UniProtKB/TrEMBL annotation:
<protein>
    <submittedName>
        <fullName>Polysaccharide pyruvyl transferase family protein</fullName>
    </submittedName>
</protein>
<feature type="domain" description="Polysaccharide pyruvyl transferase">
    <location>
        <begin position="29"/>
        <end position="343"/>
    </location>
</feature>
<dbReference type="GO" id="GO:0016740">
    <property type="term" value="F:transferase activity"/>
</dbReference>
<keyword id="KW-0808">Transferase</keyword>
<dbReference type="InterPro" id="IPR007345">
    <property type="entry name" value="Polysacch_pyruvyl_Trfase"/>
</dbReference>
<dbReference type="Pfam" id="PF04230">
    <property type="entry name" value="PS_pyruv_trans"/>
</dbReference>
Length: 388
């Protein structure tokens, strides 16, 4: 197990990226700074550090050191991303050879802590082996160089393959502190005699950022997932044939109630969309499919995570397919319903005292979709009546 010893210069937050296309993942990066500072791991003297591995040395941008300053709570954090040529990483992993004259060689021994985000729900093989293992690079460095590891609050599992589960358990045993955001893996943690602490998701610590948008009163927010709408995401493909009809019928139900509906993307790249996993593309497809576009507002702008959290915070009711879009509603006290494709939804909702507000959308029939819509409308009606 890694042990925290003397103070060092650098602090590595694994997966740190404020510009991630997934605004939920970016929200974790925003929130991680406040979380780690509040828990007295991250100090203002620390410099945030990451490494980016590159293959093509002929692209000048690949070889550049990227410097950035991040202002949170009136403090400017210095963030540096150092380049590592893939051959250098191969030497490190294969032969434990460190080149002392490189950026990596000069900084690795000065990292005090590695704190792992893993995408919030990426410490699982639900999205496939590649995504699970690709998020372990910094964790592997921590173990290899005996750097203390903090496992930041997230959902653990599920694991389809036993070898992935064994690797996850090995990592958890190494960590000097384990935070989780729900109770879905507690049984396994207890079985392994691992100490843990349940706390809020990292996005809780990211504050909404108001911007120049006028929200209609009593608005309904619907987050449409490109992962489910396109229905070709590796590992989850062909499980959401009915999802487009579900969203279309859901919109029609709230139109009958005379509500203004906001289509809110939460994971998207405004300029270079991922065709199999882009919420804005899905929201546009939903909008274009509608015969009746009255009172439908498509949020078609390149917004950062705190700005989207602000929009969601202004809704009177929210329906989300992305977990972190739902977190934005939960943490700003907006009544909601989750369209779930993983057990993480139920665990997260119940963790916050919200019951019977999720329904699984994997492999559902059109009849089951209509039943889900009835459940959503009933939840909305009960919330509306309770506030009168």
């Amino acid at each position: 197990m890694g042990k925290i010893q003397q103070m060092k210069k650098y602090f590595l937050i694994s997966g740190f990226n404020l510009e991630d296309s997934n605004r939920g993942t970016a929200a974790l990066s925003y929130g991680s700074i406040s979380f780690l500072e509040e828990h007295k791991y991250l100090l203002k003297k620390h410099t945030l550090i990451n490494y980016h591995i590159y293959n093509n040395p002929f692209k000048a941008n690949n070889r550049k050191v990227h410097y950035n300053y991040i202002e949170i709570e009136k403090h400017q954090w210095h963030h540096i991303s150092y380049p590592i040529f893939f051959i250098e990483m191969w030497l490190i992993n294969k032969f434990n050879i460190i080149l002392p004259f490189t950026y990596f060689g000069k900084t690795i021994q000065q990292i005090e802590i590695v704190a792992a985000i893993n995408g919030g729900d990426g410490f699982a093989d639900i999205y496939g082996n590649n995504i699970f293992k690709n998020r372990l690079h910094d964790i592997n460095l921590a173990i290899k160089f005996n750097i203390p590891l903090i496992f930041l609050p997230q959902t653990i599992g599920p694991f389809k393959q036993e070898k992935n589960k064994k690797l996850a358990i090995k990592i958890l045993h190494y960590a000097c502190k384990i935070f989780i955001r729900d109770d879905k893996y507690i049984k396994e943690l207890k079985k392994e005699n691992l100490n843990y602490e349940i706390t809020q998701d990292l996005s809780y610590y990211m504050k909404p950022q108001p911007w120049n948008i006028e929200i209609q009163p009593n608005a309904i927010g619907i987050n449409v997932s490109g992962l489910a709408y396109d229905n070709q995401f590796p590992g989850l493909e062909k499980q959401f044939d009915t999802y487009p009809d579900l969203i279309n019928l859901l919109i029609q139900e709230f139109q009958k109630l005379g509500k203004t509906i906001y289509l809110i993307p939460h994971s998207y790249n405004y300029h270079h969309p991922d065709i199999h996993n882009d919420d804005l593309s899905a929201c546009r497809a939903v909008y274009n499919r509608l015969n009746n576009k009255n009172n439908i507002i498509l949020l078609d702008q390149n917004l950062i995570s705190p700005q989207i959290k602000y929009v969601i915070s202004q809704m009177s009711f929210f329906i989300g397919t992305r977990m972190h879009a739902n977190f934005a509603a939960i943490y700003t006290n907006v009544p909601l319903f989750g369209l779930a494709y993983s057990y993480k939804f139920q665990g997260a909702f119940e963790r916050h005292g919200i019951y019977n507000r999720t329904s699984m959308i994997n492999n559902i029939s059109i009849k089951e979709a209509k039943d889900i819509i009835k459940k959503i409308v009933l939840s909305y009606t009960n919330d509306t009546n309770s506030t009168k």
